[in-house]
Sequence to fold (211 residues):
Amino acid sequence: MEDTNVQPPETAASREPDRSIPDVALRRLAEGNARFVAGRAMDRDWPSEVRANADRQQPFAFVLGCIDSRVPVEVIFDRGVGDLFIARVAGNVLNDDLLGSMEFACSMMGASLVLVLGHTACGAVEGAIGEVELGHLTGLVRKIQASVEAEGSESARDADGFSDRVAERNVRAVVASVRDRSPVLAELERSGKVVLAGAMYDVGTGEVRFL
Fold:
């Protein structure tokens, strides 16, 4: 296990040899989540991590997640200061500014993973299912509407698990959209320098399931 023997806490320099390997980035998140679920999070010296990352940053992954307060990204992946680029927006939907941020993270800062992270019991997804209209939220939930319609007919929307299935479909759709809308990231993926992936977080168990 890559992280369990790290003493003192990781620094940007100590991570550098692995940063260009996308599979390593994915494994780090998976291992961190396993520690979180088991209640064995790393004992971190936060002031030391702040000082170690003060002069530069070299996060190994970019995570696009939802704003849901039950999904604190660094916590559920047991990561520290300087480990991750994180963007959060309701429903983990995509826009051009987020794409630009991903391109910056991967092309200029060397991140080797872009992870779209959805979760169970997502309010934005439920808003899309219910066709909520409320100010700017209306336009946001419409970005999820295609996933609602693709998951089933209106009569199926009361079925158990429908919302979570839509949330997973939305994650897959956002990953595909990143690939389609960003030639920069698509080329990095083709060249093996970056992995574009999706995952679902279970708010009841704390487990992350990679798609």
Q: What stands out?
A: DSSP finds nine helices and five strands in the chain. Residues 162-181 form the longest helix (20 residues). The first strand starts at residue 61 and ends at 65.
